[in-house]
């Protein structure tokens, strides 16, 4: 934002962005995202989650809280643009490979837009426009709500991955990150099969 002097992560800002998308596109938020982002990325199964266990979508997991958390004690549908999407790890990777800047798959954004999106904030060198970033450069985003923990990563050496679990406890997000880097670094040969 122009005139920034401090960094504060704001889910509410992403919620406002969803309303801006609706106003400018004339469509509801999830329809616009599906037609303009997900479908071009080859994703057909992502949707906004429901508010209760009874509202679960087909093939959606049951969420488990920890330490007294009730994973069904929030209005998820109101969180559409800032945390209500349900997806498989494969769908998140399908998205990642379409915004990774590599030549393996065509990106859905122009190179200048990707550069802008991944440029660190002037007030926080570790955060860009919706992405955690570092100088390597690797880009990633995590998500954490009662009953879920998610992580998706794009590495500088050509890898994209995602991991999701249906609970959160302790440092599970950090543990998931360590696990995925350990798996990636332990594999010496990667098949050339295109999964997408």
Automatic annotation (TrEMBL):
<dbReference type="Pfam" id="PF00144">
    <property type="entry name" value="Beta-lactamase"/>
</dbReference>
<dbReference type="InterPro" id="IPR050491">
    <property type="entry name" value="AmpC-like"/>
</dbReference>
<dbReference type="InterPro" id="IPR012338">
    <property type="entry name" value="Beta-lactam/transpept-like"/>
</dbReference>
<dbReference type="InterPro" id="IPR001466">
    <property type="entry name" value="Beta-lactam-related"/>
</dbReference>
<feature type="domain" description="Beta-lactamase-related">
    <location>
        <begin position="5"/>
        <end position="170"/>
    </location>
</feature>
<protein>
    <submittedName>
        <fullName>Beta-lactamase family protein</fullName>
    </submittedName>
</protein>
